[in-house]
Amino acid sequence: MTRNTRSKPFSEINVTPFVDVMLVLLIIFMVTAPLLTVGVQVDLPETNADTLQSDNEPLEVTIDASGNIFIQETEIGISELVPKMKAITENRLDTKIYVRGDEAIDYGQIMMVLGELSGSGFTKVALITKPLSK
Q1: Cα angle vertex 71, ends 28, 33, to 5°?
Q2: Strands (DSSP E) found in 50-95
Q3: Tens-digit pLDDT profile for residues 44-76
Q4: Of all helices (H) and strands (E), which one includes residue 92?
Q5: Which of 58, 73, 81, 95 makes the best surface tag, with the fewest CB within 10 Å?
Q6: How far apart are CA 7 and CA 112, in angstroms?
């Protein structure tokens, strides 16, 4: 009995380096993903109201503790609010708009923004709060 001792070339792919790279990428994405959702920092007031269910992505108007107004994450003045909102929504006045106001600011500033939006014809404007801690 003679054995075939001729060596054949090894033709399998070594996947260990590939798995190492994929694990490193996974860790990088897991660390950076929470950072992508950070917007303008505000402390929302608490309430026991029910959560709103949304089908499409609403626009967010934020008022920070200093009284600065932001659309999404872009700072604007109160006089620019309505023209920019109409331009962004392409005059669709039924677009959902969520207003987030820091709990430290005067209620009058929030009402001024809500009044500007409602007075210009936007019909779906809501005030965002955080759930009441139990």
Answers
A1: 10
A2: 59-63, 69-71, 74-76
A3: 667 666 665 555 678 888 898 888 899 888 888
A4: none
A5: 73
A6: 83
Query: Does the pTM exceed 0.85?
Result: no
Q: Is 134 exposed, middle or buried (0-12, 13-18, 19+ CB in 10 A)?
A: exposed
At 36, list the tokens: 């992508």
SS3 87: helix
pLDDT number for residue 25: 94
Whether the Cβ atoms of residue 129 and residue 47 lie closer than 8 Å to each other: yes
What is the rounded average pLDDT of the residues 106-112? 87
Whole-angstrom CA distances from 88 to 58, 106, 130 are 11, 27, 26
In the chain the first and final C-alpha atoms are separated, in Å, by: 82
Q: For residues 127 and 99, is the Cβ–Cβ distance under 8 A?
A: yes
State the Cα–Cα distance between residues 129 and 131, nearest whole angstrom: 7
Q: What is the largest CA-CA distance in the chain?
A: 98
* CATH 3.40.50.10330 fits domain 46-131: no
* Identity of the residue numbered 113: V
Provide the mean pLDDT of the chain: 80
